[in-house]
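Notebook, student rotation project (T.W.).
Task set for the rotation: take a protein with a known small-molecule partner, predict the structure of the complex, and write up what can be learned from the model alone. Partner molecule chosen: flavin-adenine dinucleotide. Sequence and SMILES entered below by T.W., checked by me.
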Amino acid sequence: MTIAIIGAGIAGAACAARLTRQGHQIVVFDKGRSAGGRMSSKRTEQGYLDLGAQYFTARSEAFQAQCHQWLQAGTISRWNGSLAVFDDSGLHPSPDDTERYIGQPAMQAPVVQLLGNISLHCNCPVDQLQFDGNHWQLFSKGIALGSFSQLVLAIPQQQARQLLQPFLPQSPKLATLFAATALLPCWAVNIQLEQPLLPYDAIFVKNHPLSWLARQAAKPGRCRAEHWLLHFSPAFSAQHLEASIDVIVEQAVIALQHISGQPIKAVTTLCHRWRYAQQAPQYPVSGAVYLPALALGLAGDWLNGGRVENAWLSGVQLAQELVL
Ligand SMILES: Cc1cc2nc3c(=O)[nH]c(=O)nc-3n(C[C@H](O)[C@H](O)[C@H](O)COP(=O)(O)OP(=O)(O)OC[C@H]3O[C@@H](n4cnc5c(N)ncnc54)[C@H](O)[C@@H]3O)c2cc1C
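Predicted structure of the complex:
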């Protein structure tokens, strides 16, 4: 079976790796410059910066086993940051015993490992699909990408809905799936400072425009200079989705001053808008979806409760359902 997978994030990569092991021919397409999706660290002259996923945990036995393999191979490392919480009562330490992992040397390393030698086409946004009842034809900017007996979409909900719009009348299940709201946005701002700021490596922020702060240098493999990454909350990010970068950076500096209680002088700043970042808490969880009549599968964090682990589990589940 020749199977096309759209999306080289952790869900698409996990699905591709399983299907390849089962002897199928897999071709993966991604619109990004490289594999990783929301798990990508940004490469800068000073080193890698994590702007998207910050770390991942492993609660299921299956993902714990996968993480164990990655740890042994050096694909990931443990991240034992000193954690704090900023809430209505101020800033206070909040240590816990959760095992947290990060990719090495960059967050996307596990995705790259899973894809191995699988045929991967980056810079390739799939923008049109045709299905003749037996085969899927994929197109990018009018160019045909090939014919496939099965199609997997491992992309955020809103992007999958847009691509599958012409097929919704044929599948009430798809229409229902897409009716709920899914991934919420997140503005990310990285601020380089001259001086060390706070005696913590990361801060969970509550009841505030920010939701998370992390010191990049506290993570093995990342930029050594004093860089702080700030994530704005879903509510703030949605409200300011179309704001200019200048406005968002200004808000980030104000927020960092508020939390640290110190004046901030930014040496450099970097801003990234994640339009589809994290799953809405109330979204129904189905793991993955396979529609045999359409020879179509869907995987991704948005179908399985959000987070890296759940995206991986979703990709693995879809691979099992596809070959039954
Ligand atoms: C700011 C932020 C912070 C996060 N923090 C954490 C965290 O701390 N811990 C945690 O566990 N999770 C975190 N997450 C969530 C985690 O990153 C995701 O759950 C996981 O990476 C999703 O993987 P995925 O494969 O489902 O989707 P993605 O990683 O989004 O992969 C989808 C891929 O599809 C590609 N694509 C989309 N449309 C097309 C198209 N038409 N044609 C071709 N390619 C296409 C994209 O380029 C992308 O590479 C965070 C996410 C964000 C954005």
